[in-house]
């Protein structure tokens, strides 16, 4: 059976061994670093057109076993796929009309799997978004996450006594950093019950309950009464969807006082129409990792913000920072697989292993980007009080 495939596969010259369980094997090049062991012979047919979603699915459904470092598995799977399919983007964009019930379900699917599982591979403050490697050679993940929290607070020019809204607050790392180091009071919202519980515990342990209030709330239920000096949203707008983007930015606009700042930090698509790249990788993420997630292009995000009256003042790409962050997360998880097995199902663990290593690879390859977009809500006369240079952020 393997011989039927050998002609198309062996011309790829990859450090890959393909084997049939208990049967023959085929080396596609010398010194294979990775082995794909086919457990279900029907899979051989799929290997003729090996899209990344099909390969990923075969792994999570245990129709195929992989051996070798997970980063190598992802890289070689991509070369295999590209060698046989070419370098195509996915033709269609998967878009949904999001409603609150659908989004709550999607968030529970991803975030409510187990706090202890996330604790295994995130930094101590459990920040679940791109870190900021000021010193790319020496910064640990923990240091880079502190750098990121501080970078956001500095860009937001937080001052003692101000009120900050954190939309999609996760386990509360940014709220605690801002309250402790910048003297602000924070109102944060999440849709994840598990996150909320642990975030509140962490706030209490650190004696910050008086300055931080966290609630289980959808961004569409915020009151819109301009009660906040600053608004921040980190790693959340990927859940909003193109159909709701305009409304989402209107909600952020409505929460902030005139003259206030809004920071949106999120993953953005490579292509302007938001279509995913890379032979099924986006399909896999949408199906198994972030249901109904959508990545708008930077230009779409900026256009929506502008339409809602937010004046974009600064944009920063952190693409390589996110590749590095995901490498740390993946390495941490790979080092603790036994503990992880006790916390989540085998299928979930396989999905998260592929997702972390695959996204590290994808950011490195420029399949998607991530941008911090800072905007101001101008005062009625059009002016604002931002400094005339950016020296204050970097001093
Ligand atoms: C990737 S996590 C980022 C968490 C946090 N900002 C951080 O950097 O660690 C995304 C967060 O967005 C929240 N979220 C997603 N959709 C939401 C919605 N419709 N309303 C409120 N929060 C939402 C999730 O519950 C989660 O807390």
UniProtKB/TrEMBL annotation:
Pfam entry (one): CMAS
Catalytic site positions: 359
Transmembrane ranges, per UniProt, are none
GO biological process entries: lipid biosynthetic process; methylation
InterPro entries the UniProt entry points to: CFA/CMAS, CfaB-like, CMAS, SAM-dependent_MTases_sf
Question: Any idea which UniProt keywords this protein has?
Answer: Lipid metabolism, Methyltransferase, S-adenosyl-L-methionine, Transferase
| Superkingdom of this protein's organism | Bacteria
Q: Does the keyword Transferase apply?
A: yes
Q: Which GO terms describe its molecular function?
A: methyltransferase activity
Its family? Answer: Belongs to the CFA/CMAS family.
Q: What is the protein name for this chain?
A: Methyltransferase domain-containing protein
């Amino acid at each position: 059976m393997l011989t039927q495939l050998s002609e198309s596969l062996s011309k790829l010259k990859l450090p890959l061994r393909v084997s049939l369980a208990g049967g023959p094997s085929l080396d596609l090049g010398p010194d294979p670093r990775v082995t794909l062991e086919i457990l279900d012979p029907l899979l051989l047919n799929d290997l003729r057109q090996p899209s990344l979603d099909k390969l990923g699915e075969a792994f999570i459904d245990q129709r195929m076993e992989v051996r070798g470092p997970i980063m190598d598995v992802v890289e070689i799977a991509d070369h295999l796929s590209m060698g046989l399919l070419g370098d195509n983007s996915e033709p269609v964009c998967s878009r949904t009309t999001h409603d609150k019930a659908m989004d709550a379900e999607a968030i529970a699917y991803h975030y409510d799997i187990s706090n202890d599982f996330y604790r295994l591979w995130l930094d101590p403050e459990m920040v679940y978004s791109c870190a900021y490697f000021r010193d790319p050679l020496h910064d640990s993940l923990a240091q880079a996450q502190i750098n990121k929290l501080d970078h956001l607070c500095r860009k937001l020019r937080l001052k003692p006594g101000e009120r900050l809204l954190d939309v999609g607050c996760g386990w509360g790392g940014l709220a605690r950093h801002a309250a402790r180091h910048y003297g602000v009071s924070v109102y944060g919202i999440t849709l994840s019950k598990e996150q909320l519980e642990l975030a509140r515990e962490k706030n209490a342990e650190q004696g910050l309950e008086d300055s931080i209030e966290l609630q289980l709330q959808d961004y569409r239920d915020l009151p819109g009464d301009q009660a906040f000096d600053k608004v921040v949203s980190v790693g959340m707008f990927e859940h909003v969807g193109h159909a709701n983007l305009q409304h989402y930015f209107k909600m952020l606009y409505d929460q902030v006082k005139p003259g206030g700042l809004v920071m949106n930090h999120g993953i953005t698509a490579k292509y302007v129409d938001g279509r995913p790249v890379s032979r099924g990788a986006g399909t896999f993420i949408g199906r198994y990792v972030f249901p109904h997630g959508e990545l708008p292009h930077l230009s779409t995000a900026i256009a929506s913000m502008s339409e809602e009256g937010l004046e974009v003042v600064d944009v920063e790409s952190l693409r390589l920072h996110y590749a590095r962050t995901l490498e740390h997360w993946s390495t941490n998880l790979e080092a603790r697989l036994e503990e992880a097995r006790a916390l989540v199902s085998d299928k979930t663990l396989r999905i998260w292993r592929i997702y972390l290593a695959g996204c590290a690879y994808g950011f490195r390859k420029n399949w998607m980007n991530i941008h911090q977009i800072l905007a101001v809500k101008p005062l009625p006369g059009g002016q604002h009080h931002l400094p005339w240079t950016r020296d204050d952020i970097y001093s």
